């Protein structure tokens, strides 16, 4: 077995003594750092390579933390000045997953880079920590690499904000490919619109 095989086996057993100790030390370190910061190299090289990372020019790793739990409604003093049914502040669940939120925050912070993918690295009682693989699409090493230069196409600008990354597709329900999938493709809104639009053709 290669070294990466051992690494991936280690990461599979997250409650082992080794990983519990590493988590405790790493989460402490990450809490002292800024919310979004650049990592010198991936914490999980095996996972990063599986998701498309290459240790070459143009590839960057950013680490980000996201608060666990539900998303609080951003209202001043908790007042919504509306109907009582809309007055909830604290128990609103976010529709997408935390990993998608992490990608979104890094994508907004690093506007010149493109989000390729991301993966979980640690969590404690308050935060979840992710590493996001970013690609500099203006770098010549990326533009001349046939395996990754699809990302240079302008349609991939801010793909993380439009639910096109792996985490975003999972949040849209596109992991499902059997019974029930007909209501989510191409999107829930498109299917709703098709089913609720009365189309009376002229010659029928």
Description:
By secondary structure, this protein is an alpha+beta fold. The chain has 7 helices and 4 strands. A 4-stranded antiparallel sheet has the order 1-2-4-3.
Structural features:
4-stranded antiparallel β-sheet; 204 residues; globular; alpha+beta; 7 helices; 4 strands
Per-chain topology:
Layout: H1 3-12, H2 17-32, E1 36-39, H3 45-50, E2 59-67, H4 98-109, E3 114-123, E4 127-135, H5 140-143, H6 166-171, H7 188-196
Antiparallel strand pairs: 1-2, 2-4, 3-4
Q: What is the topology, as strand order, of the major beta sheet? A: 1-2-4-3
Q: Give me the Rg, rounded.
A: 21 Å
Order of helices and strands: HHEHEHEEHHH
Count of DSSP helices? 7
Please state roughly what percent of the residues sit in beta strands, choosing from under 5%, 5-15%, 15-25%, 25-35%, 35-45% or over 45%.
15-25%
Taking the sheet with the most strands, its summary is: 4 strands, antiparallel
Q: Whole-number average pLDDT? A: 93
**Main structural class:** alpha+beta
Shape: globular
Sequence stretches where pLDDT stays below 50 over 5 or more residues? none
Outline:
By secondary structure, this protein is α+β, with helices and mostly antiparallel strands.
């Amino acid at each position: 077995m290669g070294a990466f095989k051992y690494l991936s086996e280690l990461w599979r057993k997250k409650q082992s003594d080794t990983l519990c100790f590493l988590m405790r030390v790493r989460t402490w370190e990450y809490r002292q750092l800024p919310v979004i910061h650049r990592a010198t190299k991936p914490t999980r090289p095996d996972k990063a390579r599986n998701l498309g990372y290459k240790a070459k020019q143009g590839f960057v790793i950013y680490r980000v933390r996201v608060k666990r739990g539900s998303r609080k409604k951003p209202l001043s003093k908790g007042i919504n000045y509306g109907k009582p049914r809309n007055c909830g502040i604290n128990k609103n669940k976010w529709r997408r997953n935390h990993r998608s939120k992490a990608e979104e925050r890094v994508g907004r912070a690093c506007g010149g880079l493109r989000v390729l993918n991301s993966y979980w690295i640690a969590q404690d009682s308050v935060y979840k920590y992710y590493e996001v693989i970013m690609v500099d699409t203006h770098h010549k090493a990326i533009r001349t690499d046939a395996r990754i230069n699809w990302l240079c196409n302008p349609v991939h600008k801010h793909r993380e904000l439009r639910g096109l990354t792996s985490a975003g597709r999972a949040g849209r329900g596109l992991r499902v490919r059997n019974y029930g999938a007909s209501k989510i493709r191409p999107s829930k809104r498109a299917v709703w619109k098709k089913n609720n639009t009365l189309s009376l053709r002229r010659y029928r």
